[in-house]
Amino acid sequence: MKICCIGAGYVGGPTMAMIALKAVDIEVTVVDMSVARIAAWNSDTLPIYEPGLDEVVKQRRGKNLHFSTDVKGAIDAAEIVFVAVNTPTKSYGVGAGRAADLRYIESVARTIASCANGPKIIVEKSTIPVKTAETIKDILAANGRGITFQVLSNPEFLAEGTAVADLLNPDRVLIGGERTPEGAEAVKKLVDVYARWVPRDRILTTNLWSSELSKLVANAFLAQRISSINSISALCEATGANVDEVGTAIGKDSRIGSKFLKASVGFGGSCFQKDILNLVYLCEHFSLPEVARYWESVVRMNEWQRRRFTSKIVLSLYNSVADKKIAILGFAFKKDTNDTRESAAIYVCRDLIAEQAHLSVYDPKVPAEEIRTDVLGHGVDNPRLTIAANAYDAARGAHALAILTEWDEFKALDFPRIYEAMSKPAFIFDGRNIIDLEKVRAIGFRASGIGK
């Protein structure tokens, strides 16, 4: 069997690498229009950072795992074509700010229709709104050459930072297909690929629409839990309760569980906000305004939590951060990834620069130019934003230090050394609740966390 994946990003690259690792008899080719991205996949410095991914790619690259810009050749040769291109939120026209922009999905469908030399199984791997398969099927059916296609939905449920572990041992693999003999046969072929290493009882099969919708709903439920505990963090600060203790107490309830009950400066990443807004748009489209408002509140709470964190910094520093230096530790939206999409750090940095603060930002994996672009815009410079080589350089002379990503190295910092190098009084704002506040207060810091 030969498999092709269109899109060499956070989903396509790791997923195909794992299939190549676990099914050495399958030829896997990942294609992308970006020459630079494909070159990076073929180099010693991969375009994305995920613990363990380098080793997986290096084991199979050049054997049964290939990265190429030859889109047509890969489609021609493949029996199964995965589609893993970006589906950002629309920034224009009808549904702007909420609906998914499906231009890349449509473009891929047209490319497949024009390049395919025979029947193919098309697998939606991108996060897409329910009923997108109808669009793909319609475009493919219009190929004019009598070629038939089966469209399956196989959403990814990877968490960035643990993608390799998630692929090795997934909670579930979800595959949706049409309830026809041809659809069932296509589903079976994809099930057999995953069954090389995933237990059969973890491979769930549904109809197309259930699979497409399940991805959006899963991310909405997870984001909802984060917004819920973040709303309680504000109440904890007002009453003297400790949000970590509250989270532990309610997480012991087997009906609730402990995951995603960690208060923070807010959730980020490529999926949560985009998928919730897409869900909101779908609810409005199907005339369900009450449901739309309910899910929209999850996003509003996340935005409020970021603003609340910034306001706390400003108020603590005597109601002004103008011309004061603030060290920002962490820029990625979570640890163990270099992804900054919708990172809380972007919004906190923008708000602090708007308050005329000077920022010194350090992140162990995010390139300096990406930080500048995310905060200021492409090609824009501002002397109020500098990038530090390490946490100690960032903190030198700073009035305050804000932790915005839960990198493990930040827990092991030499805080007495940092305190000596900072302006006094020295403040710490722990946006991820990863340090012992009492210990740093004993050093002399004025330290606060989220919900404490």
Note down, in words, how this protein is organized:
This protein has 452 residues and is of the alpha/beta class. The protein contains 18 helices and 14 strands. Strands 3-2-1-4-5-6 form a six-stranded parallel beta sheet, sandwiched between helices. Helix 5 (103-115) runs parallel beside helix 6, helix 9 runs parallel beside helix 12 (289-316) and helix 12 (289-316) packs across helix 13.
Chain-wise SSE layout:
Layout: E1 2-6, H1 12-22, E2 27-31, H2 35-41, H3 53-60, E3 65-68, H4 71-77, E4 80-83, H5 103-115, E5 120-124, H6 132-141, E6 149-153, H7 163-168, E7 173-177, H8 181-194, E8 203-207, H9 208-239, H10 243-251, H11 272-285, H12 289-316, E9 325-329, H13 344-354, E10 358-362, H14 368-376, E11 385-387, H15 391-395, E12 400-403, H16 408-411, H17 415-421, E13 427-430, H18 437-443, E14 446-448
In short, what is this structure?
With 452 residues, the chain is of the alpha/beta class.
Descriptive terms for the model:
14 strands, globular, 6-stranded parallel sheet, 452 residues, alpha/beta
